[in-house]
Amino acid sequence: MQMSTVLFKKEEADRLLNEFRFKIDLRLQAILFELAVWMARTLSKGLIVTCLLRTVEENKAVNGLPNSSHLDGRAADIRTYLLSKPEIDKLIAHLNAVWGIEFLHTKYHDSGSGLHLHTNINIKYKRIIVS
Asked: Which parts of 62-124 fold into alpha helices (H)?
């Protein structure tokens, strides 16, 4: 069985770990921790995050939506090439059942960077930062 921890894309591990620890929405952190445990227990696979935050320039470069939830720390892209289609379907069903489709949007798609799982906290639940 894989360790039940959140892992990061090797090429950007330092950046992603920093974003995960200090910059993303804490609710997204909780979702990813829960998903890592679920994947280890249910699929015997690890969770590998490939994208969290993007700058406006990075978002444009990957043809991201102008209001992408990657811009404010509400989204994560998850590597799926080690998962079968039934495992991906099970993963999406799990996220929908635990977090609810009103709160969390999840899709399996190719936005130009290859097939991956994208999940984000819906805009209705955008975090408010009080300074």
From this structure: 85-99
Token pair for 76: 């994560």
Say which CATH class 6-125 falls into.
alpha beta
Closest listed residue to residue 34, CA positions, set 82, 88, 97: 97
- For 88, counting Cβ atoms within 10 Å of its Cβ (0-12 exposed, 13-18 middle, 19+ buried), the class is middle
β-pairing, 47-51 with 75-78? Answer: antiparallel
- Where in the chain are the domains? 6-125
The neighbour count for residue 90, using CB atoms within 10 Å, is: 16
| Strand ranges (E), 52-112 | 75-78, 104-110
What is the token pair recorded at 6?
Answer: 């959140």
Report the greatest alpha carbon distance in the chain: 44
From first to last of its 131 residues, what are the pLDDT tens digits of the chain? Answer: 456 689 999 999 999 999 999 999 999 999 999 999 999 999 999 999 999 999 999 999 988 899 999 999 999 999 999 999 999 999 999 999 999 999 999 999 988 778 999 999 998 888 766 55
- Cα(69)–Cα(65) distance, rounded to whole angstroms? 9
